[in-house]
Amino acid sequence: MDLGLRGRKAIVCAASQGLGKACAMALAREGVDVVIVARRREVLDSAAREIELATGNRPQTVLADVTSREGRDAIVSTGPEPDILINNAGGPPPGDFRSFERDDWIRALDGNMLAPIALIKSTIDGMVARKFGRIVNITSHAVKAPVAMLALSNGTRSGLTGFVAGLARSVAEHNVTVNNLLPGTFDTDRLRSNLAALARNSSRSVAEVTEEVRASNPSKRFGHPDEFGATCAFLCSAQASYITGQNILIDGGAYPGTF
Q1: What are phi and psi of 36, to 5 degrees?
Q2: What residues pair up with 203 in beta bridges, in sequence order?
Q3: Kind plus residue range of the DSSP H or E element containing 148
Q4: Segments in the chain forming alpha helices (H)
Q5: Which of 61, 188, 204, 224 has its CA 20 to 30 A from that of 231?
Q6: Do residues 17 and 189 make contact, with C-beta atoms less than 8 angstroms apart?
Q7: What pTM does this model have?
Q8: What is the distance, to the nearest Å, from the Cα of residue 39 to the centroid of all Cα atoms in its chain?
């Protein structure tokens, strides 16, 4: 399927690895001019080379921290008038909520709620004026099924979800869609970090915990980032113009609810 995206422009945050890189890769394959953002130069340049090798489309790179105004200004100036915005940020650390101080919560809010909202604010009016826009926020399955050890993520990502629910309906008539993608257990560094923390907290080996989590999923496996990237690309497509304000789980069937 031709997604109708060739020649469009995209900003993809936290795109040097994991799910962000997978989204950038999928969009580049569709002929999108991609700007990828990360905080570490070495992994950012490595991701750009990998994307170019796989797609023939070399992304622009921005070394920036999305939680700072200077970082967001650099992102928007490098990728002006984007048609697509993929908001993504490394999740806050796991742990018992009793151990978190106010500064921990502020950092989590900055990264997983306030920075995405600021980037949306900087880009959405141009999308409305041009009558095309796709905003995808990568959040977490914990928005639908909170995990006790992910208290920072549960709270801050749910705040972003509530904001999006109101925003999406206000711009839909202009062919601008805003959706959230909720990943489950994908084979990424973030998952491995969470599994290591779970192992420590339960005094078990990482291998034991990993196998237990894998076996608990109905698919009996972890997701592959490429699967996530393909779904993201479709949500950005011309064909997805009637999908907006949704929280789309990609979790192998782990969420047990009907709705």
Answers
A1: -110, 145
A2: none
A3: none
A4: 18-29, 41-55, 69-78, 102-109, 115-130, 151-171, 189-202, 206-216, 225-235
A5: 61
A6: yes
A7: 0.94
A8: 15
